[in-house]
Amino acid sequence: MNRRWIDLFSRLFTLLTALACFSLVAGVALILGDVVLNGLKHLSWEFVSTAPKTGMTEGGIFPALFGTVFLVLLMTVAVVPLGVSTAIYLQEYAPAGSRWVKLIRMAIQNLAGVPAIVFGLFGLGFFVDFVGKGIDRFFFDGALTFGQPAILWASLTLALLTLPTVVVATEETLRVVPRSHREVAYSLGATRWQMVRRVVLPQAVNGILTGTILAVSRGAGEVAPILFTGAAYYLPYLPTHLNQQFMVLNYHVYVMATQSPDVDATLPLLYSTVLVLLMLTFALNFAAIIIRSRLRRRLKAGR
Amino acid sequence: MTPPPALQEMLRVEALSVKTKNATLLDRVSLNVREREILSIIGPAGSGKTTFLRCLNRLIDLEGGLSVSGKVLLGEQDVFDDAVDLAALRRRIGMVFALPTPLPLSIRDNLRLGLRFQKSSGPGTLEERIETCLRAASLWDEVKDRLGESAQKLSGGQQQRLCLARTLMVRPEILLLDEPCSGLDPISTAQIEEALQSLKDQMPVVLVTNNVKQASRTSDRTAFFLQGELVELDDTGRLFTAPRDPRTADYVSGRFG
């Protein structure tokens, strides 16, 4: 091949890669632009603070917004301690190089590859039917209390789904804490737990929060796991107990898009709901990033 | 020249061996650490100096796949006894590592670290103790006004002196140093050596060093290790001027190592 052809190829390839990059950016811009432009029209304080009315053709999304935040908070409360403890055990306590540890680690990583709908069905079978019904039988004389789809079960199912994210991210940061730091702690008379608590965990806060951010964004976006475990099609009231169903934004979007009696009347609401969902996800991410950088600064300053 | 009988033996090591599956890292080493002395351990890389040191406070436990035999007696207690409280043992035998390892904390919190691991920290206020230990490590004047700053902002030499002070904070009975000056400039090295000289009256110092000159100028006795074996142990003056073993002579005169 002569020089000119090579030149041409090289240019062509540059063009192709640039085009690929551009189409990606353009795609995101289009989606965001469409959502923002159309969504802003209907967005108002009233929209975010009232419940849907007349078959979702009027009113707002407050119950869904509330449900989403509540759900994600519950999920975080469940997944962070569990995930962080698991990572600490695997990295700090379990015998290094043991076959069982490798197996467990592999299982956790494979958990991340399980389709979300499978988690939904598992949640229904395990949490709702097995755990929930079990609780009812033993503590409530069989009266239906926990043996039904509920925000508790939905958040636990989501926690299971996001567990690998937290475990992997935490393990990653535990691993980079230098061995020399651990030895210093031991040489000063630390027990293993004291070493973990005083030396390893403070340096791992970053990674734990990164894992939490990822888990929160993923959890806030998933519909399938909560479909059978607690998300409600329509609920005129807010969940006040852990065993109640709840509305949630992303499921609400689906419901509005497919089940509305009057598509044209619902469409503007739909746009605004999507916009709110996006803003909420960004806000959650942003909050976590701020917390993280604060903690990092505090750690650097040596508190 | 036998040492005056008044010098008590703080640590007795009897036939200490460390083996991996197919190599011997330490071969039946016996030696004693006396009070008020600096005992240097010299030898080329891989001679078992660090392994020996890490046996004394059982930091060796952190490495898997090693079998240790022999005794290390601290007072009447065998360090390798299963009933030993490791945390308490390591408080009694303090250690400074080869590289300065300040944790990403403030200077003060680095110093307090060891105290956080124990229930009662003993007499004296924290501030007094911090000052005493920083003075003992000849670092006080340089950091007294910025104890709240990050320890990792200090220079390498300052960091290593901070590590020394951090070890002193838990009031060890014996001080182990593993090539503490290997990464330091001559001035910092001199400051550390000076600190050790004034510390040895309170606690014996075991100084592993790959710097023969450091051993000759700072220590009272010197032990020469080679391939896991204790070749010779003698008063520093005699070991350097009239070694009994030809291998020692070769090493201290710089013919190898």
Task: Report a brief summary of the structure.
The complex is a heterodimer of chains A (303) and B (257). By secondary structure, chain A is an all-alpha fold.
Question: How is the secondary structure organized here?
Answer:
The complex is a heterodimer of chains A (303) and B (257).
Chain A: H1 3-42, H2 45-49, E1 52-53, E2 58-59, H3 62-93, H4 99-111, H5 116-139, H6 151-176, H7 179-187, H8 192-221, H9 224-227, H10 249-259, H11 263-301
Chain B: E1 9-19, E2 24-34, E3 38-42, H1 49-56, E4 67-74, E5 77-78, H2 86-92, E6 93-96, H3 107-116, H4 126-136, H5 140-143, H6 156-169, E7 174-178, H7 186-199, E8 205-208, H8 212-218, E9 221-226, E10 229-235, H9 236-241, H10 246-252
Parallel strand pairs in B: 3-8, 3-9, 6-7, 7-8
Antiparallel strand pairs in B: 1-2, 1-4, 4-5, 9-10
Helix pairs in contact in B: 3-6, 4-6, 6-7
- Sequence stretches where pLDDT stays below 50 over 5 or more residues of chain A: none
Relevant CATH superfamily of chain A: MetI-like
Rounded to the nearest angstrom, the distance between the terminal CA atoms of chain A is: 64 Å
Q: Kindly state the mean pLDDT of chain A as a whole number?
A: 87
- Rg of chain B, alpha carbons: 18 Å
Name the assembly state: heterodimer
Tell me the radius of gyration of chain A: 24 Å
Uncertain parts of chain B: none
Please tally the β strands of chain B and state the result. Answer: 10
Structural class of chain B: alpha/beta
Strand order of the largest sheet of chain B: 6-7-8-3-9-10
Largest sheet of chain A: 2 strands, antiparallel
> What pattern of helices and strands is seen along the backbone of chain B?
EEEHEEHEHHHHEHEHEEHH
Number of helices of chain A: 11
Tell the overall outline of chain B.
globular
Number of strands of chain A: 2
Q: Report the helical percentage of chain A.
A: over 70%
The separation of the N and C termini of chain B measures 28 Å
